[in-house]
Amino acid sequence: MRAVSLRPRCGAGCRGLGLEPAAAIMAHVLNVNNEVVKLRKEVKRARVLTIRRLTRHIGKLKLKKGSEDVVLKNQRRAQRLIEEIHAMKEIKPDQVTKFALEKEINFESVCKMI
């Protein structure tokens, strides 16, 4: 069998076909990586703020009074929020950024994936 090269052959023919040379492709990949690195700080900050908001909501749910059914319902909701916080802590900031850059996000599709 003959080895197949994945490197594009960029002579005059590539420019005519609209293909990018290997150097331009590598520059694009590096640019995306730089954007991912730049967004790490923003993603971490958003995660911290979201976790704080969920923690406040959990505290409010635990303090609510009412019948046994309402109290159990609030406890189940608080437990779901705690599990959501733990899941958020597992996710790396780069995964969040890459997901946001590669796909068009809407709430329903994210909920279906989880």
Automatic annotation (TrEMBL):
InterPro entries attached to this UniProt entry: Bud22/SRFB1
GO biological process: maturation of SSU-rRNA
GO cellular component: 90S preribosome; nucleus
Domain of life: Eukaryota
Protein name: Serum response factor-binding protein 1-like isoform X6
